[in-house]
Amino acid sequence: MTTFLSDEWFDEMAAAAAAARPPADLELRIEQEIIDGASWTVRIGAGVAEFCRGGCDDADVRVVTDAQTAEGIRSGAVSAQRAFLDGRLRIGGDVAALIEHRDVLADLALGTP
Fold it and tell me: Domains in the chain and their CATH numbers?
């Protein structure tokens, strides 16, 4: 298994996004900030998904957590719901877009809690 947040992990996520085929009419930018680690952005638009390092100023949704919680959610050891209720996961912006497009986002499986 690739080490979470390693260069190899970022490369794998970028390749997975490049191979994805989201709906052409979906426009969504999701930023994941790891407060004690790296951040990344998933941009979806015009039937293309892009995964890139760093944050984005125009994110529709912003997810913030620490590295340990993010890894726990990724590995399945921690549920996103529990982390949210415990205050270890914060979500801002257009949360309704996450809910509305949850199936598409689950199909992408790009490491976003």
Answer: 7-108 (3.30.1050.10)
